[in-house]
Design a protein that fits this description.
Number of helices: 2
Radius of gyration: 15 Å
Oligomer: single chain
Bound molecules: 6-O-methyl guanosine-5'-monophosphate
Shape: globular
Structural class: mainly beta
Distance between the termini: 26 Å
Length: about 160
């Protein structure tokens, strides 16, 4: 594993409901052009859980009783900070889902494609997602770590697993 000096905390949150998952198309910043959960940096004085709720509201316009379900740890060469990303999930939400400056939300099928929903677009998501989203869908807690190439497209070393209760 590549050594790192500092970490920066991020959040990423998903709504899972009735065989579908809410993702957002990132319109700018880190991960532009990829589908992901909703989230961002944990601000000073905030807990990751508070940041997750704030970011979901800012990026998708909704509120949800988020539960923490996983931790991911990523290193990208050349960046001063390694990413410490806390993952959250909820099965209900309130408010109206809206497109924002940062994200274009859309429901995907968690199983096979249906008449109105496409399957999870792994080919247009971060390379790590295919390894841990199955744990998220199964309601399991999980953890993972990966070293990426400098362009963040490829993992050079990785490990993902279900957390033992
Ligand atoms: P803002 O730019 O919105 O925060 N993020 C990653 N998510 C996955 N699945 N894999 C990665 O592999 C990621 N790197 C960053 C964390 C960036 C958002 O992107 C997520 C945040 O939710 C390297 O402030």
């Amino acid at each position: 594993w590549t050594a790192y000096e500092k970490t920066k905390q991020y959040t990423n949150a998903f709504i899972l409901q009735d065989g579908k998952i809410l993702l957002g198309y990132k319109k700018r910043g880190i991960g532009e052009g990829l589908w992901n959960g909703f989230g961002g940096k944990v601000e000073p004085g905030e807990t990751p859980a508070q940041a997750a709720v704030r970011e979901l509201k800012e990026e998708a316009g909704i509120e949800a009783p988020l539960r923490e379900c996983g931790t991911l740890f990523f290193h990208v060469p050349g960046l001063e900070n390694a990413f410490d990303i806390r993952l959250f999930v909820a099965n209900e939400y309130s408010g109206e889902i809206i497109e924002t400056d940062e994200m274009r939300p859309r429901w995907f099928s968690t199983g096979d494609a249906t008449a109105d929903l496409e399957p999870i677009p792994y080919a247009k998501m971060w390379a790590d997602d295919v390894y841990w989203i199955p744990h998220l869908l199964a309601g399991e807690k999980f953890a993972g770590r990966a070293d990426f190439t400098a362009d963040s497209n490829t993992m050079t070393k990785y490990w993902f697993g279900k957390e033992v209760e």
